[in-house]
């Protein structure tokens, strides 16, 4: 069957010709429309109405205007920013250190460590949250036993709750950072390192003047993906602190959930969710544009090369 022939079926005396490409694109397109486009359109419609009224009247941008004067939203954004800064910084630092270790040719059992590295990342967020909730239990938790801090309520203390969630997310996110960074390290050319070693450069100078500049695009992509992943975190917070104590760990995803499904403000929750999506999309667009400009500049021959 040629691609142009398609599939021919008979319905009475009428012949229906289906182009063959649609047989392959159809299921994926249908899935995309049902689970991506339709929910997005439905959420936009909800955000423009008063969902609490019986007739659900159209209120335009009233829900979006309410976001400007909502102190709880600003508090959740502030908590999200602190949470994202701590989780991404620690995950990135650990990811760089582990990637450099696994890229070392002298490391024993490299294949084994690289294989098990991905395991924490593929575990469900709910499982991660419940596991850390049990490990940090004030009486039965293994963490208090190891540290000798029996009785500490890690997820119930105002001073420790956000830090405990950050540790859980770092454990879950670091393998993803490590794998991407390790792939970038293994793709770097060997010649600049050999030339620098001949000139007497040490390990720190190699890392600072060669590895970091060449790894900059990879690092920027990793940080961007980490921001997107951390901003939408919900299950780990829900299963550990539920936004407490005193809403000190209520990230923006938790606040949207509480507003929509506990206060039954689905219209306002939809507006906030769309606002977060737009903000993350703008951030991703600006970051990818900056990466494209850097990549394009790197391809332009230098003055020395033209001479």
Any overview of this molecule?
This protein has 307 residues and is mostly helical. The chain has 2 domains: 17-62, no CATH class; 71-306, MetI-like fold, CATH 1.10.3720.10. 69% of the residues lie in helices and 3% in strands. The chain has 14 helices and 2 strands; from the N terminus they run ββαααααααααααααα. It has helices at residues 20-47, 62-68, 71-102, 110-116, 119-122, 125-135, 142-147, 161-186, 191-198, 203-231, 235-240, 252-261, 266-299, 303-306, and strands at residues 7-11, 14-18. It has a two-stranded antiparallel sheet. Strand 1 and strand 2 form a beta hairpin. Helix 10 (203-231) runs antiparallel to helix 13 and helix 12 (252-261) runs antiparallel to helix 13 (266-299). It is globular and about 75 Å long. The N and C termini lie far apart (56 Å). The relative contact order is 0.11. Residues 1-9 and 298-307 have low confidence and may be disordered.
Structural class: mainly alpha
The name of the CATH topology of the largest domain is MetI-like fold
Strand tally is 2
Percent strand equals under 5%
Total discrete domains: 2
Major beta sheet, strand line-up: 1-2
Helix content estimate: 55-70%
- Under CATH at level 1, the class of the largest domain stands as Mainly Alpha
Mean pLDDT across the residues is 85
Q: Distance N terminus to C terminus?
A: 56 Å
Shape: globular
Along the chain, the helix and strand elements come as EEHHHHHHHHHHHHHH
From the alpha carbons, calculate the radius of gyration and give it in angstroms: 26 Å
CATH H-level superfamily of the largest domain: MetI-like
């Amino acid at each position: 069957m040629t691609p142009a022939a398609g599939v021919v079926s008979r319905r009475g005396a009428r012949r229906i010709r289906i182009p063959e490409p649609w047989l392959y694109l159809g299921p994926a397109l249908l899935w995309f429309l049902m689970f991506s486009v339709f929910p997005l359109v439905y959420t936009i419609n909800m955000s423009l109405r008063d969902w609490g009224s019986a007739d659900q009247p159209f209120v335009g941008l009233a829900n979006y205007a309410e976001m400007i004067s909502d102190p709880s939203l600003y508090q959740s954004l502030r908590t999200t920013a602190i949470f994202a800064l701590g989780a991404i910084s620690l995950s990135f630092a650990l990811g760089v250190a582990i990637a450099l270790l696994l890229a070392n040719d002298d490391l024993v059992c490299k294949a084994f460590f690289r294989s098990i590295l991905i395991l924490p990342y593929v575990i469900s967020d709910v499982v991660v949250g419940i596991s850390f909730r049990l490990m940090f239990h004030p009486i039965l938790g293994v963490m208090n036993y190891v540290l000798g801090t029996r009785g500490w309520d890690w997820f119930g203390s105002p001073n420790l709750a956000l830090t405990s969630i950050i540790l859980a997310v770092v454990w879950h996110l670091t393998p993803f950072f490590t794998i991407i960074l390790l792939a970038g390290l293994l793709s770097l050319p060997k010649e600049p390192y050999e030339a620098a070693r001949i000139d007497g450069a040490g390990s720190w100078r190699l890392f600072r003047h060669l590895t970091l500049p060449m790894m900059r695009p990879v690092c920027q992509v990793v940080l961007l993906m980490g921001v997107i992943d951390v901003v939408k975190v919900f299950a780990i917070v829900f299963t550990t602190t539920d936004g407490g104590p005193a809403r000190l760990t209520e990230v923006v995803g938790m606040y949207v959930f509480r507003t929509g499904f506990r206060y039954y403000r689905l219209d306002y929750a939809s507006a906030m969710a769309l606002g977060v999506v737009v903000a993350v999309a703008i951030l991703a667009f600006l970051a990818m544009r900056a990466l494209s400009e850097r990549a394009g500049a790197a391809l332009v021959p230098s003055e020395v090369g033209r001479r």
